[in-house]
Design a protein that fits this description.
Blueprint lengths: L1 E4 L2 H6 L26 H12 L4 E10 L5 E8 L9 H13 L8 E7 L5 E6 L5 H8 L24 H4 L2 H12 L4 E10 L8 E8 L5 H13 L8 E7 L7 E6 L8 H8 L6
Parallel strand pairs: 3-4, 7-8
Antiparallel strand pairs: 1-5, 2-3, 4-5, 6-7, 8-9
Helix pairs in contact: 6-7
Organism: Nocardioides zeicaulis
Protein name: LppX_LprAFG lipoprotein
Keywords: Signal
């Protein structure tokens, strides 16, 4: 499974200091194999190999943990101009395959935070442990001696989840980013991702755009929100649009509450744009 993660920019900045594993599972009694532990030498070898590849311009940082499972986070600058022209699947999968073939073990989850030349940022997580057979089919077995943290036999953690809650809908969000890139006044789309419902925050579609200042912030945010509204991204209770302007000030955040039962903007937006294609 690949998971497209919200707050990609934050995750990239914090990859060395504790950005959460987007595929964290509840603690289990399964013992994490010792493997190479912090894998300092193995991670250094992986960074060297990535840096020498044509697809990676630079490795910004790494984070290794073995609490609950073997996790590795990597922040990279990727050889792509923007979300419209770059082959993001190939770029991210190239980093993931290199990590898969590395000596880092156990490697149950890999999180790749990538940035393109125009600043577009995205984080994709690879659940190697749970989907081991699928990745072995794609890339062959991991190096001899690789360890795995046992996956609990309990019910799949995705049970009860629907739509973008399951996999983040990264393809749909990339589509939103590409459409938003074509809007007048948008010089770049910096991120486009899903945020799950939590005890403190409603589920949302989060889009961050850079503006040339020729279109009013509220108008531009509404145009971006319309793209999300007309998509099949679901479930979402809110659309959050961040607009960064050329004056160098703090970005403007505009949130549209679209929950059919309680969202203050739902009725107005439905009158403007018609019903959403999904509930």
């Amino acid at each position: 499974m690949r998971w497209n993660v919200s707050a990609a920019v934050v995750c990239l900045v914090l990859v060395l200091s504790g950005c959460a594993n987007p595929l964290d599972r509840p603690s289990s009694s399964a013992k994490v194999p010792t493997g190479c532990g912090e894998c300092t030498a193995e991670v250094a070898d992986l960074v060297a190999e990535l840096t020498s590849s044509d697809a990676v311009l630079d490795v910004r940082g790494t984070r290794r943990t073995t609490t609950g499972s073997g996790f590795l986070g990597i922040g990279v600058d990727l050889d792509g101009d923007d979300v419209v022209s770059a082959d993001l699947d190939a770029l991210f999968d190239g980093v993931a395959e290199t990590a898969w073939r590395s000596g880092v073990t156990p490697l149950d989850t890999l999180s790749v935070s990538g940035v393109l030349r125009n600043g577009y940022a995205e984080t994709v997580a690879y659940d190697f442990g749970a989907d081991r057979a699928a990745f072995e089919k794609r890339w062959g077995a991991r190096p001899k001696g690789s360890d795995w943290t046992p996956v609990p036999d309990e019910a799949d953690e995705s049970d009860g989840l629907v739509g973008c809650e399951v996999d983040g809908c990264h393809d749909l969000f990339r589509g939103v980013a590409r459409d938003a890139s074509a809007l007048p006044g948008v010089t770049a789309v910096l991120s486009s991702a899903y945020a799950r419902d939590t005890p403190t925050n409603a589920s949302s579609a989060d889009v961050d755009v850079e503006s040339d200042g020729t279109v009013a912030v509220d108008d531009l945010a509404e145009q971006v929100a319309e793209i999300v509204w007309r998509s099949t991204i679901s479930p979402i209770d809110a659309i959050s649009v961040t607009v960064e302007t050329p004056d160098g000030g703090f970005p403007d955040d505009v949130t549209f509450q679209i929950d059919p039962d309680h969202g203050r903007d739902h009725e107005r937006l439905q009158e403007m744009w018609g019903p959403r294609p999904v509930g």
